[in-house]
Amino acid sequence: MPTDSEKMAVAAHLHVLMRRKMGRVTDVEWLVRNAEYAQEIIRLACQQAEHPEVADWGAKLRAMLFPRPAAPAPAPEAPSSGVAAVARYVRGLR
Amino acid sequence: MHLHSRRPAATLLAGSVFAGPAFAAEQVPVAQISAGDTAWLLSATALVLLMTLPGLALFYAGMVRKKNILAVMAQVLACAALVTLLWFFCGYSLAFETGPAGLERWIGGLGGLGLGNVLHDKAAGLASVHALMPSVPAAVFVLFQLSFAVITPCLIIGAVAERMRFAALLAFLGLWSLIVYVPVAHWVWAPEGWLAQLGALDFAGGTVVHINAGVAGLVAAWMLGPRTGFGRMPLTPANLAYTMVGAGLLWVGWMGFNGGSAGAADGRAGIAMLNTQLGAAAAAMSWMAAEWITRRTPTLLGLCSGAVAGLVAITPACGFVTPGSSVLIGLVAGAACYWGATGLKRWLRADDSLDVFGVHGVGGIVGALMTGLLADPRVGGVAGSLGTQALAVVATLAFSALMTAGILMLVHLLTGGLRVDAAREQQGLDLSEHGEQVV
């Protein structure tokens, strides 16, 4: 789970790129604190086909602020044939 | 080692009664030696030795737990070396030299102590030969028989694996080779032996080697008691790949075991080898089928075990039966030995660790009895007798069981105990008996 410092760092990097490439000024601290503001800025950043680095950092910020839920854990396997094989060596080899 | 391809049994019997003992080593001109027969017997001997080193060692090592791999290999190697020296000293003589008057049916004599009558005189152009293989030098005959004397006690190691003290095991196997193996070999293979004179058929050692070792292993397993945890926890084989490699060496080596017992590079050797291959293959299939039906899973261990069971069963028969009979013997042996290593084993309540009785004992009994039923005079010159074969089986079972028990009791007294203690058994014999381990 990324820390606030790490989120601020990525948000700051995106802020610099958007200012240089697009001329857009953002509020870095508000990006990290406000989900709606962050989602809108990220949406604008990811639309920048002519500035792929802006889109990349937008995606990174999205991954940090809005991580996808973990895939459900796989169901426990049925007892493997290895267990059955070990069980057969209890009263003899064969 | 058979008798009947050289002379009919009646002639041998007549010779032993009227012509006096004439089966010890004698010297002949080297020109009388057959280069072909000698070359084949030399090769066959090497094949049989390969069955023990490293065939049997690998076969067994793969089936024990990892902490006992090196111990089992050390036991096989040490036994092979020990029996070699005992054979040199007196074993060969007591098995194959003429016995003292009145006792010649039961044991050989001391005329070959230290192999003193096995000679090769280059200057005089003479070489010793034995009457049982007159076309090869006696040295080759002695060595070929040695390879059988070596593997037989080594088989017993499988029954007592993972719990017997190394010193006690060596003492037991050394005494067993002289007190049990040598007399039975004399009874069956020496022409004056009492079972040979009754017409018992054992081409290459189904009785002498396999029934003998099988029942000895069973008795030893009973007397030692089960391994710690037997019946309660899995005693998982370390590496069945070793076992398969060992089984392969046994299978190929058995070509020498059975083919060499013809005593010559001839058609009899050829039929013996063909029958050997057929018996092994049929038994591997029938064991596999039995396992597949009862357990829904064909295993590598089952295939290896079935092949060995077939090789055991065909051993007494290979020089006396047709190829078709060999297939039948193999099919029966595979299923019978599968039962021997499973249902019969549980009924006997002995922790025969690696199923020596189930495979070698049961397989040898099946082979001996079926030889009595299926021996074809066109192949081996003699017909079989189920009754005589049964007598040979019972006599060997009884003698081997009783003498094995007696030797173990003696060794127990002399060495202070047969088993390692519980802590050493838990640690594993590799470390506790040999200070070594597989990493």
Helices and strands, with pairings:
The complex is a heterodimer of chains A (94) and B (439).
Chain A: H1 4-22, H2 28-33, H3 35-46, H4 52-65, H5 81-87
Helix pairs in contact in A: 1-4, 3-4
Chain B: H1 9-18, E1 26-29, H2 35-61, H3 69-96, E2 120-121, E3 126-129, H4 138-156, H5 166-189, H6 194-198, H7 206-224, H8 240-259, H9 267-295, H10 300-314, H11 323-341, H12 343-348, H13 356-374, H14 377-380, H15 386-415, H16 422-427, H17 429-434
Antiparallel strand pairs in B: 1-3, 2-3
Helix pairs in contact in B: 2-3, 2-4, 2-8, 3-4, 3-5, 4-5, 4-7, 5-7, 5-15, 7-13, 7-15, 8-9, 8-10, 9-10, 9-11, 10-11, 10-13, 11-13, 13-15
Short description:
With 94 residues, chain A is an all-alpha fold. Chain A has helices at residues 4-22, 28-33, 35-46, 52-65, 81-87. The relative contact order of chain A is 0.14.
Structural class of chain A: mainly alpha
Largest interface: A-B, 9 and 23 residues
Coarse shape of chain B:
globular
How would you characterize the largest beta sheet of chain B? Answer: 3 strands, antiparallel
The rounded Rg of chain A comes to: 24 Å
Residue stretches of chain A low in confidence (pLDDT < 50, at least 5 long) are none
Overall geometry of chain A? elongated
- Topology of chain B as a string of helices (H) and strands (E): HEHHEEHHHHHHHHHHHHHH
What is the string of SSEs of chain A from the N terminus onward? HHHHH
Order of strands across the main sheet of chain B:
1-3-2
| Number of alpha- plus pi-helical segments of chain B | 17
| Average pLDDT figure of chain A | 85
Number of strands of chain A: 0
Give the end-to-end Cα distance of chain A, rounded to a whole number of Å: 52 Å
Mean pLDDT of chain B: 94
Radius of gyration of chain B: 21 Å
> What percent strand of chain B?
under 5%
Q: Using DSSP, what is the number of strands of chain B?
A: 3
Structural class of chain B: mainly alpha
